[in-house]
């Protein structure tokens, strides 16, 4: 498993390569795994990228924000790294986060919109180093609309575009 993980509630993250056993030995929120199998063409493009240690970190940003804005490069969260890296695998012209985000918009990716009021945002920002809202556009943030990349939005987009099959869920 190649994945992005932040350091125990800090605002820093890194890319890790782990076996499934080590991956699941973490402290899971619930004992459930879900995945989407990419279409054959995307699988063929992803495999060499994921096997290349230099390529797999090319679009990684160490600054971690659990609720990062999908169309900003200031921070990056785990799901955001996944779809930006997927964009790089799908299109050889994607060589930066900006180009990955442009490709995702072109392909119809739609982030999840969370309704978070000012007091919730303030409380989260004050108590958690890995949550920030300063990368979200003011007009959305002050309307309590926080857009971010979620597993649900990625799974729905992959299936809607034909880039992936239906999600598979395994209850452990």
Descriptive account of the structure:
By secondary structure, this protein is of the alpha+beta class. Helices cover 40% and strands 15% of the residues. It has helices spanning 20-24, 40-51, 53-56, 78-90, 97-106, 118-127, 138-141, 151-161, and strands at residues 2-6, 13-17, 32-35, 112-115, 145-148, 168-171. The strands form 3 sheets. It has a two-stranded antiparallel sheet. Strands 3-6 form a two-stranded antiparallel ribbon. A hairpin with a 6-residue loop joins strand 1 (2-6) and strand 2 (13-17). Helix 4 crosses helix 5. The radius of gyration is 16 Å and the shape is globular. The model has no long low-confidence stretch (mean pLDDT 93).
Index terms:
about 170 residues; alpha+beta; two-stranded antiparallel sheet; about 15% strand; globular
Low-confidence runs (pLDDT<50, min 5 residues)? Answer: none
The total count of helices amounts to: 8
Summed over residues and divided by their number, the pLDDT gives a mean of 93
Report the biggest beta sheet as strand number plus sense, adding barrel if it closes: 2 strands, antiparallel
- Overall shape: globular
Strand-and-helix sequence, N→C? Answer: EEHEHHHHEHHEHE
Look at the helices and sheets and give the structural class. Answer: alpha+beta
Helix content: 40-55%
Number of strands: 6
**Going across the major beta sheet, what is the strand order?**
1-2
């Amino acid at each position: 498993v190649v994945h992005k993980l932040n350091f125990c509630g800090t605002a820093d993250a890194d890319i890790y390569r782990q076996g499934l056993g080590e991956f699941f030995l973490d402290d899971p929120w619930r004992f459930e795994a879900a995945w989407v199998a990419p279409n054959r063409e995307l699988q063929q493009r992803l495999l060499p990228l994921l096997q290349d240690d230099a390529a797999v970190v090319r679009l990684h940003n160490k600054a971690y924000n659990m609720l990062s804005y999908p169309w900003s490069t200031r921070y990056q969260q785990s799901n955001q790294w996944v779809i930006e890296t997927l964009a790089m695998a799908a299109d050889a012209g994607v060589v930066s986060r900006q180009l990955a985000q442009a490709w995702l918009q072109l392909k119809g990716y739609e982030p999840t919109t969370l309704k978070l009021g000012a007091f919730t945002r303030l409380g989260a920002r004050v108590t958690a180093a890995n949550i920030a809202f300063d990368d979200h556009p003011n007009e959305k943030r002050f309307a309590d609309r926080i857009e971010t990349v979620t597993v649900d939005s990625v799974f729905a987009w992959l299936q809607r575009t034909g880039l992936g099959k239906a999600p598979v869920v395994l209850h452990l």
